[in-house]
Automatic annotation (TrEMBL):
Any one GO MF annotation of this record: kinase activity
Keywords: Kinase, Membrane, Transferase, Transmembrane, Transmembrane helix
Taxonomy, superkingdom: Bacteria
Record InterPro entries: Bact_2-comp_sensor_kinase, HATPase_C_sf, Sig_transdc_His_kin_internal
Protein name per UniProt: Histidine kinase
Residue ranges constituting the Signal transduction histidine kinase internal region domain according to the UniProt record: 157-236
Taxonomy of the source species: Bacteria, Pseudomonadati, Bacteroidota, Sphingobacteriia, Sphingobacteriales
Membrane-spanning intervals of the chain: 12-36, 42-62, 74-97, 117-136
Gene3D superfamilies per the UniProt record, alphabetical: Histidine kinase-like ATPase, C-terminal domain (3.30.565.10)
Keyword Cytoplasm attached: no
């Protein structure tokens, strides 16, 4: 979107335009008078006075219509105003000319007044039209900017709301696990409390940010996994696979945690054996691809109820951030559920 012109730049353009009109009007008027065999000194006086008058009128038009935007029924007022300004310019020009030129040399003046009126009317109408279209463009740009800012505020609020919706689910599960551990394993309950505190502190620090590096996101995800490993013990194992070059990639804040939480829910719930959740990250052609896979029991009743917690919220976040609906895909390969997340890497 084009940047709006500042007030200082606008004034400079107005000054420049007015003096361009002055120079062109002076040259054209002098040429017409010279072509009509008017005396040179009279032509110079006449052309100079006429040019300065139309320049002054141009300034007056710019000042009068600086913020004016007519509605569809008021455009006739512009032509009426142009006629009034043209009449004023002709009157001022004639008054000043008679002060410097003798009556014997003014025979041509009254004869030329209708032609001067038409020329001045056309020039003033053009100036008014340019001024009005300029105001309409500035108003349109201002409205567009305000609309974009409003949409951004709504989008940011929705993104914040989506992120906040994901936290209570995890928080309640963690608190329930802490309560369960207090009696039988107080030290593990104490450690889990500290880990939960660190995780929530890190989450609060990220509230104002939309993006972070992959390295920071993995570090934050590790805090979450430490808590979950206290809940599930030896049954939960995680494997990370990535090259060093992916660590500086950009990724939406807390986008991995709900995906991993979904994998844990559908991989470990109602399962007593050890479960390995694999997380691989690759970067190619400015696209960061994250693949999360977990085993699941195909005959579990819960599996038939949907694709998992948080996936629809992640889809919505990705759409709000990137305007695309194809960045998150899920599929099943045998007894393995796979989530594939693609994050564009812009310069």
């Amino acid at each position: 979107m084009a940047k709006p012109i500042s007030e200082q730049s606008k004034r400079s353009i107005i000054h420049g335009t007015s003096w361009i009109i002055c120079g062109l009007y002076l040259a054209i008027m002098y040429g017409l008078l010279w072509w009509s065999k008017i005396a040179r000194d009279v032509a110079i006086y006449d052309a100079g006075i006429s040019a300065l008058t139309i320049t002054g009128i141009s300034y007056l038009v710019f000042s009068s219509l600086q913020y004016y935007i007519p509605n569809n029924r008021n455009y006739w007022k512009l032509f009426a105003l142009a006629a009034i300004f043209s009449l004023i310019s002709i009157t001022i020009t004639r008054f000043l000319i008679v002060q410097f030129i003798s009556d014997e040399e003014l025979i041509y003046l009254n004869f030329s007044l209708p032609f001067r009126f038409v020329i001045n009317f056309l020039i003033i109408t053009c100036v008014m039209t340019i001024n009005v279209f300029w105001n309409i463009q500035e108003e349109s740009m201002g409205n567009k900017k305000r609309k974009e800012e409003s949409e951004k505020m709504v989008r940011d609020a929705e993104l914040y709301n989506l992120r906040q919706q994901l936290q209570p689910h995890f928080l309640f599960n963690s608190l329930n696990s802490i309560i369960a551990l207090i009696g039988s394993k107080p030290m593990e309950a104490r450690n889990m409390t500290f880990q939960l505190s660190d995780f929530l502190r890190g989450t609060m620090r990220k509230d104002d940010a939309q993006f972070t590096t992959v390295e920071e996101e993995i570090s934050h995800l590790s805090l979450y996994l430490d808590i979950e490993k206290v809940r599930f013990g030896h049954r939960l194992e995680t494997e990370f696979h990535y090259e060093e070059d992916v660590l500086q990639g950009r990724i939406p804040v807390m986008i991995l945690q709900p995906l991993v939480e979904n994998a844990i829910k559908f991989g470990l719930y109602n399962v007593t054996t050890e479960v390995v959740i694999k997380i691989s990250l690759t970067l190619a052609e400015k696209m960061l691809t994250i693949k999360i896979s977990n085993p699941f029991e195909a005959d579990q009743h819960e599996q038939k109820k949907g694709t998992g917690f948080g996936l629809s919220s992640i889809q919505r976040r990705l759409y709000l951030l990137y305007g695309r609906t194809d960045l998150l895909q899920t599929k099943k390969e045998g007894n393995t559920f796979i989530s594939i997340l693609r994050i564009p890497q812009y310069d």
